[in-house]
Automatic annotation (TrEMBL):
Pfam families: DUF58. PANTHER family: BLL2464 PROTEIN. Residues 74-239 form the DUF58 domain. This is Mg-chelatase subunit ChlD. InterPro entries: DUF58 (IPR002881), vWFA_dom_sf (IPR036465). SUPFAM superfamilies: vWA-like.
Length: 300
């Protein structure tokens, strides 16, 4: 495990691969702008929502002739629709110290590419996208307010690639999450979630008003040392302090068991808070991400 220098920003072609990513909000949005999500907004087309008696503000083009003829009291009925509407997609990125380490991949590079790509997917779908990033000690390491600007995805990828992950703990990330608008939206929370479960819970609590998807950036090489016998130099993923350990089979077994326990506890927390998981292990696999978004859940 080695500390990584700032990675190169994702290219335009890298981000364009995310353009057709499909996602949906689990709640109804309130927006007058047409889009792809179920809403509470009446419209002249969309999802059928029942019948209303003809009134002064009814749309006669939606006259339901069958219901009107069948009405024994000669009432005239018009169809009522709820039009699909656009929403807001928030991308929140953890850039604490553990996100700056490299195993088989650079977590920092993966996170920056995911943030830019998800921004591209949101804007291409007609939604507004906002992006926030927090280091271990700064809740405002990067802030982009909701926008549909076409250049935003590239700006996000370049800006996040230029921020060096630093600091420990998730208090700044929790503060970053609490600064989001209280209007319900979709939140992609990108992190390695390597911290203790008790430290992760307040972060999810700060997003209770939103539909949250936890994007878990994983890399086995950065969490469990290679199976070998002898002295090994190991670095702490958060504070980057190094140390020497004598690796032996019993220690590796305990290490791996603790990682499995952490994974089980994390899965339990996500299930308890109703937060679907999107695992990204190693390189970004858009087919797997799409399948997970459609299925609504995955296992760690």
């Amino acid at each position: 495990m080695v500390a990584a220098s700032n990675p190169p920003a994702a290219t335009e072609s890298d981000l364009e691969e995310f353009a057709d990513l499909v996602y949906a909000l689990r709640h109804r949005v309130s927006s007058s702008r047409p889009g792809n999500h179920a809403s509470r907004s009446p419209g002249s087309y969309g999802r059928f929502a029942g019948l209303d008696r003809l009134s002064g503000n009814s749309d006669l083009r939606r006259l339901d002739l069958r219901a009107s003829i069948a009405d024994p009291f000669a009432s005239v009925w018009v169809r009522r629709y709820l039009q699909a509407a656009s929403g807001v997609v928030h991308v929140v990125v953890d850039l604490s110290g553990s996100m700056g380490f490299r195993g088989s991949v650079a977590r920092h590079a993966v996170a920056a590419t995911l943030a830019g790509g998800l921004t591209r997917a949101a804007i291409r779908s007609g939604d507004r996208a906002s992006v926030r990033a927090a280091t271990g000690d700064r809740s405002d390491a990067f802030v982009m307010e909701p926008t549909r600007r076409a250049s935003a995805p590239s700006e996000v990828a370049m800006a996040l690639a230029a921020i060096a992950p630093a600091g420990s703990g998730l208090s700044a990330l929790r503060e970053c999450c609490s600064q989001l608008s209280t209007t319900p939206g979709l939140v992609f929370l990108i992190s390695d979630f390597a911290a203790a479960v008790d430290a992760i819970r307040p972060v999810l609590d700060a997003l209770v008003m939103h539909d949250v998807r936890a994007v878990v950036v994983g890399d086995p090489e950065a969490e469990v040392p290679a199976a070998r016998f002898g002295l090994a130099h190991l670095d702490d993923l958060e504070d980057r302090r190094g140390g020497v350990a004598f690796l032996r089979p019993s220690l590796l077994r305990r290490w791996r068991e603790r990682r499995r326990e952490h994974g089980r506890a994390l899965s339990s927390l996500f299930a308890e808070t109703g937060c679907p998981v999107i695992p990204v292990t190693g390189q970004i696999d858009l087919e797997q991400i799409t399948e997970t978004l459609i299925a609504g859940q995955a296992t760690l």
